[in-house]
Automatic annotation (TrEMBL):
<feature type="domain" description="2-C-methyl-D-erythritol 2,4-cyclodiphosphate synthase">
    <location>
        <begin position="17"/>
        <end position="157"/>
    </location>
</feature>
<comment type="similarity">
    <text>Belongs to the IspF family.</text>
</comment>
<comment type="pathway">
    <text>Isoprenoid biosynthesis; isopentenyl diphosphate biosynthesis via DXP pathway; isopentenyl diphosphate from 1-deoxy-D-xylulose 5-phosphate: step 4/6.</text>
</comment>
<keyword id="KW-0456">Lyase</keyword>
<dbReference type="InterPro" id="IPR020555">
    <property type="entry name" value="MECDP_synthase_CS"/>
</dbReference>
<comment type="subunit">
    <text>Homotrimer.</text>
</comment>
<dbReference type="GO" id="GO:0046872">
    <property type="term" value="F:metal ion binding"/>
</dbReference>
<feature type="binding site">
    <location>
        <position position="23"/>
    </location>
    <ligand>
        <name>a divalent metal cation</name>
    </ligand>
</feature>
<dbReference type="Pfam" id="PF02542">
    <property type="entry name" value="YgbB"/>
</dbReference>
<comment type="function">
    <text>Involved in the biosynthesis of isopentenyl diphosphate (IPP) and dimethylallyl diphosphate (DMAPP), two major building blocks of isoprenoid compounds. Catalyzes the conversion of 4-diphosphocytidyl-2-C-methyl-D-erythritol 2-phosphate (CDP-ME2P) to 2-C-methyl-D-erythritol 2,4-cyclodiphosphate (ME-CPP) with a corresponding release of cytidine 5-monophosphate (CMP).</text>
</comment>
<dbReference type="GO" id="GO:0019288">
    <property type="term" value="P:isopentenyl diphosphate biosynthetic process, methylerythritol 4-phosphate pathway"/>
</dbReference>
<feature type="binding site">
    <location>
        <begin position="53"/>
        <end position="54"/>
    </location>
    <ligand>
        <name>4-CDP-2-C-methyl-D-erythritol 2-phosphate</name>
    </ligand>
</feature>
<feature type="site" description="Transition state stabilizer">
    <location>
        <position position="152"/>
    </location>
</feature>
<feature type="binding site">
    <location>
        <begin position="23"/>
        <end position="25"/>
    </location>
    <ligand>
        <name>4-CDP-2-C-methyl-D-erythritol 2-phosphate</name>
    </ligand>
</feature>
<dbReference type="InterPro" id="IPR003526">
    <property type="entry name" value="MECDP_synthase"/>
</dbReference>
<dbReference type="GO" id="GO:0008685">
    <property type="term" value="F:2-C-methyl-D-erythritol 2,4-cyclodiphosphate synthase activity"/>
</dbReference>
<feature type="binding site">
    <location>
        <position position="25"/>
    </location>
    <ligand>
        <name>a divalent metal cation</name>
    </ligand>
</feature>
Length: 179
């Protein structure tokens, strides 16, 4: 594959930034406060779900933090404090939309995203394509620009879901530094 046929935007970005985000939520049964398990905006059949203030979507939280970190914009807890009643049970897609909007206001867009979910059970492989499609749609990216990996903790963290995300951001519009 030549560089001109690589996937990505149809023009070269003027600047690049790398972002990184993580999240972790304890898993519990519904009677112990666990919410339905949702990852990347996709409902995951599971006996246990995240204990969280919001819907507990650890994948979307890590993607949103990765976007914010790439432009040094802080983290989602600053925009959506877990002490605020208005965010209780919220759909984490709202968090991602806000983070993406802040990045776009500065002329940047995500170019590709890599997500790792560490979870012992259930197996997520059958949902890989659906989670990748969901993330791609939320980020306005082609599906091929979203990598989704799953790991078990090998029994080291059986009661948590953990996520890690890297994102490459590109600035497609000229800013003050380019004119
Ligand atoms: N919740 C999970 C965790 C892992 N997988 C898949 O299992 C394979 C082996 O994972 P290891 O952590 O033992 O290396 C790997 O292919 C994962 O994609 C899964 O589907 N769901
Ligand atoms: C999303 C927020 C806000 O509802 O709460 P949680 O759902 O608990 O999630 P977390 O990843 O711990 O941090 C960000 C919070 O501010």
């Amino acid at each position: 594959m030549t560089s001109s046929s690589l996937p990505g935007p149809d023009r070269a970005p003027l600047a690049y930034r790398i972002g990184y985000g993580e999240d972790a939520h304890r898993l519990a049964r519904p009677e112990d406060g666990g919410r339905p398990l949702v990852l990347g905006g996709v409902q995951v059949p599971s006996e246990r779900g995240a204990v969280a203030h919001s819907d507990g979507d650890a994948a979307l939280h890590a993607v949103a933090d990765a976007l914010l970190s790439g432009l040094a914009l802080g983290d989602i807890g600053q925009y959506f404090p877990d002490t605020a009643a208005e965010w209780r049970g919220m759909d984490s897609r709202v968090i991602l939309e806000r983070a993406l909007g802040l990045v776009q206001e500065r002329g940047y867009a995500p170019l590709n995203v890599a997500l790792v979910v560490t979870l012992d059970r259930p197996k997520l492989g059958p949902l890989r394509a659906e989670i990748a499609r969901s993330l791609a749609a939320l980020l306005a990216l082609p599906g091929g620009e979203v990598g989704v990996s799953f790991k078990t903790s090998e029994g080291l963290a059986p009661d948590h879901v953990q996520t890690r995300v890297t994102v490459l951001l590109g600035r497609l519009e000229p800013g003050d530094a380019d004119v």
